[in-house]
Amino acid sequence: MSGNTFGTLFCVTNFGESHGPAIGCVIDGCPPGMELSEADIQRDLDRRRPGTSKFVTQRNEPDAVEILSGVYEGRTTGTPIALLIRNTDQRSKDYSNIAQSFRPGHADYAYFQKYGIRDPRGGGRSSARLTAPTVAAGAVAKKWLKEKFGTQFRACMTQVGELDIPFESWEHVPHNPFFAPVSDVSRYEEYMEQLRKSGDSCGAALRIQASGMPVGLGQPLYDRLDADIAYAMMGLNAVKAVEIGAGFDSVAQRGTTHGDSLSPEGFRSNNAGGIVGGISTGQDLEVRIAVKPTSSIIKPRESIDVHGQSTEVITKGRHDPCVGIRAAPIAEALLALVVMDHALRHRAQCGDVDTGLLPIPASASR
Amino acid sequence: MSGNTFGTLFCVTNFGESHGPAIGCVIDGCPPGMELSEADIQRDLDRRRPGTSKFVTQRNEPDAVEILSGVYEGRTTGTPIALLIRNTDQRSKDYSNIAQSFRPGHADYAYFQKYGIRDPRGGGRSSARLTAPTVAAGAVAKKWLKEKFGTQFRACMTQVGELDIPFESWEHVPHNPFFAPVSDVSRYEEYMEQLRKSGDSCGAALRIQASGMPVGLGQPLYDRLDADIAYAMMGLNAVKAVEIGAGFDSVAQRGTTHGDSLSPEGFRSNNAGGIVGGISTGQDLEVRIAVKPTSSIIKPRESIDVHGQSTEVITKGRHDPCVGIRAAPIAEALLALVVMDHALRHRAQCGDVDTGLLPIPASASR
Amino acid sequence: MSGNTFGTLFCVTNFGESHGPAIGCVIDGCPPGMELSEADIQRDLDRRRPGTSKFVTQRNEPDAVEILSGVYEGRTTGTPIALLIRNTDQRSKDYSNIAQSFRPGHADYAYFQKYGIRDPRGGGRSSARLTAPTVAAGAVAKKWLKEKFGTQFRACMTQVGELDIPFESWEHVPHNPFFAPVSDVSRYEEYMEQLRKSGDSCGAALRIQASGMPVGLGQPLYDRLDADIAYAMMGLNAVKAVEIGAGFDSVAQRGTTHGDSLSPEGFRSNNAGGIVGGISTGQDLEVRIAVKPTSSIIKPRESIDVHGQSTEVITKGRHDPCVGIRAAPIAEALLALVVMDHALRHRAQCGDVDTGLLPIPASASR
Amino acid sequence: MSGNTFGTLFCVTNFGESHGPAIGCVIDGCPPGMELSEADIQRDLDRRRPGTSKFVTQRNEPDAVEILSGVYEGRTTGTPIALLIRNTDQRSKDYSNIAQSFRPGHADYAYFQKYGIRDPRGGGRSSARLTAPTVAAGAVAKKWLKEKFGTQFRACMTQVGELDIPFESWEHVPHNPFFAPVSDVSRYEEYMEQLRKSGDSCGAALRIQASGMPVGLGQPLYDRLDADIAYAMMGLNAVKAVEIGAGFDSVAQRGTTHGDSLSPEGFRSNNAGGIVGGISTGQDLEVRIAVKPTSSIIKPRESIDVHGQSTEVITKGRHDPCVGIRAAPIAEALLALVVMDHALRHRAQCGDVDTGLLPIPASASR
Fold first, then answer.
1. Would you say residue B150 lies in a domain?
2. How far apart, in whole angstroms, are the C-alpha atoms of residue B158 and residue B203?
3. Cβ of D220 under 8 Å from any chain B Cβ?
4. Contact flag C125-B77 (C-beta cutoff 8 Å)
5. Is the ipTM of this complex over 0.90?
6. Each residue of D73-94: pLDDT tens digit?
7. C339 CB-near residues (< 8 Å, 6+ apart)
8. Which residues of B touch A303 (CB under 8 A)?
9. Into how many domains does chain B fold?
């Protein structure tokens, strides 16, 4: 209820600040009996961690996760799984400049007005670093969903700044630092290189997908599956827009084209993005998000200080020129957490409903 | 937790089906001592109700609200406010056709697979009619926020089908059936007339705004104000996309232009849409949503029946050719419910924090 | 979160005041497909309702329940079940005396200080009348638990004022107005008759039992089954104490006698009251509660008025001289609601765990 | 929702097992700006920790707490406070005996049946060791409540086994290992010494009190202050009964004596235990609990093994012969957590209600 717990039955409580001693989370509600090791979680953390290319922050963090509880002899016990990641590359630099003024577009003004106090070291609690525990928890959810239903999650970048990234294949995604679904990313490398030199930042758009979805997940009125996906995605640092299925394109569509026809062989299209009436249909979940440009840039900006006086702000330090680049594994994790929570909620209320009707195959893409 | 309660401290529990005896909600957590009468609520219900123009469903419902509890001698007592709206224009028609097959784009396939049973009369629980109690609850939230902070909510249509609707002035909105911010809506009337004759439906886009916002609302990590707005909006029937502030445009922006400069006179722009780091800045909240075309159309569609066999579906009855037309008061209500809940959450944790810094004026639009 | 919702997955949201137009509740999270009619619920309401003997309040209320939603063609649909009970015997008497002063032992002082406003008519929200919707919701839970697991709930009175009521048989309970497990209640009738004449009131103790319990219900640390039972029971109007199993007797017991031995034929005793470590063992749940004497009595009492000045208070009107008399069906309902909620929570996390070990029979009473 | 989080607005999420690498908790919702150091928390942990006398478990744990987050420059920031306590005295002994059979009165049978897996090392998650994080969180709540309202919490033992402990003075409590309110505890030392030699265990009763209580805390219907206290106390390991105010004595009382008279000088008595209608009156909170005898005893007991076959169980290792001895600081902490949560909930809904009526003084004890 106090804003740092994600989910209702698969609950992830997140803690930590960018430059405190540690960050982490407690996962409560994980089903018992699943094999789980630190390696299962580390894999996704490594995909998110900083310092892996010159296009992301140069902070050097191994982000090594330690399982503190909830696993006995390699299996989950049904009790809380606490995950700890020690911060190792904090810098004891002088934060007095940042502490006394507000960066345009940054959370520090809002934090100060809300709490009357804030931890200015590296953005404190508002740092994108706090997505690491989310990724760790998502890895646990992904594992269970894959074993139980065969559900799989993936994400890729579809636009960086003003450059569209055409979709070639999911296979390219792991092989470039942009999570781009193309074989040749040299164009985007040049673009980022120039941007970095100019001391500016840019936004990005991403596509997130879940395939092998169970049918019937989602509460129909308020805690709809699409609502919870939008909540999860818009809650990711810097995200300013979320689309599901046809998204904004659906405005100009007709009912005759938007509604996905059903046939014994499967749906004929996927304008729904896998969800109607707030409930999953078994089609792939298709989500698209917009990530704004980083607010921490070295170009000088007009602002005010903590006394309300005019000032100029320059942000030094190690920052991502495009936070969208590292957003793919985080967005995947968030989608997995939403699906996981709804899978447990569905099981609670409906058990194993048998309608006699097989879920129809999810054949068509949009 | 079971999907029919909105909010955590200002909790709205919704019940009812389109053609059952009644719909309504219970509001729990309303502060005591506020003047409240049925007229305060009826005003917004009347803006949403069906049958008010030829461009919406011809169902004739007064949607008269009865306050069953929580108000004594014209003031809220702090106990639950139960609101009841009797359904009066149910039709005892034959639903066997709809009950045996699934409309493309409609929730009935998902409901059937989830629960193994569904109320097919007028869409049952998935009907847009269930937004009426949300609007009623939103009216209570709006009243408190206006009296406490001077916050005000409004919404208008910005696109219908493929037609953009330019923004002229908020003053035009109450004077046409489209909630359009323009003086002359003849072009949209003709468009809708043709669409209705063709037996098809179209989507719409809307803009929702809150002005006079308190600073500091929103929990910073998961229950962010922007996340909860996205949750609320994407949960509205037929919504497929949500933008806050610059939304998808932020992808192609630079950090130097996106981040709203601060000055002693106020913010210089509003790309943030009133929220940074998940917390309100005092700028106006600016939200945009996409509403898909109605799935209940009279044109025949390919589908399957409850045995998985091929069939053709035609939806007769009284339906909105563009559900987006009536979405404005609902979207306002949802935004008010989100802000209300966060106002109470903020007061719980932070009381009246005094930073010594006045909220800077929210001068600029985007 | 705001205090009028019971349960987390089988959620009951209660509304209404003693002399408002109606009371009721919304049940959210009921599994779909269960047969349910108003008669299933009315049966328990009739056991609780006032005016059935001279030992309870003479308010004459049929407490007729109306199902407003969530049931289609006689079966639950998985959507919210709204239950409405119209108040029919409100009295338009003068409440100005009660409204201006505080009854010793009554909630009106606390309500006034909390909210600054209260509905004084018949106790308003603090009236025991608000247990009727709880009983109605409990009837739905009982029905599901009986069909699913064979679980059954019953309660009886074990003490009235200073008189112990020996346990003879559960069969006597429905046949006397005290819910007493004895064949001859003349002694208690005389006692109550004298008490009523004296204008005073007395307390009562009750025993509540669930048999046919599933094994493994309860969350082990905070949301333990015993903790939630204590919460439910202590939340019942006028309850001041709760025991589970051996209760206070366990203080003087030794570990060698308290711990219930296990054998292939079953537990040898039931000091646990059916719960160890917060989790059900399959033994019968055994609960005991103490109900204080009614605070609304006609004997004059020293008190203060709303200005803090000394005054004398006399409560006229129709009141129960021993609220414990009607507590049996309410306590049963609360126990059923707790078990129901934990049954769904267990199914969410653990599905159908198969330990290979049969639950051992629950043979022994304490 | 998954059973390891306590509270709704001041949320404490607990993790860990008795012999895992660490235990701890995350406190979410603490108001910002309060001075907080590890020393503030360590004080209460030291009162609870094992090995301090020969009457408690000889496990030697410093229980040194580390604050991982939520505090910046010695003040709370309003973000989650993560507390970590490393386990240092785990024993790598052979648990195969305990793992294969069930101790009468112990949680291991229930855990096994619930989850199909359990961590047998020192009781795993069911160990009383998991109360340490609760005590740590309670210390934070106590500090805030003391600074804000002057509220103070204390607890003492009132019965050990069959021996009553008369109340002499709160001043004696810190000066003996029993938390007994008497100057001479030699009688109880002898009793415990004999019990320990016999290889058996006994129960205990405790009294817990809060003074300096704010008026108006508690939600009136379900989340009543008394209900939440009962929930908290019955959830403490080994507790089997909870009384508030007159408790079971209220059964034999008359309405004329039970209801605490009000006068301008204060309440004349405290049968209510500080709560009427679920809401605090400003009188002292008075709670009494029964703690059962430890189930881990060295005397042989009849039981079954994991295959359902008869066996005999002996528990070796380091155990408390009377867990009630160390319960006083834990019960205090739990009471503080309940009051804290309700203080924030009250502030959320009611802000600073001004009734014009001063809270009357809480003068009388029961």
1. yes
2. 11
3. yes
4. yes
5. yes
6. 999 999 999 999 999 877 656 6
7. C141, C145, C151, C210, C213, C217, C225, C285
8. 261-263
9. 1
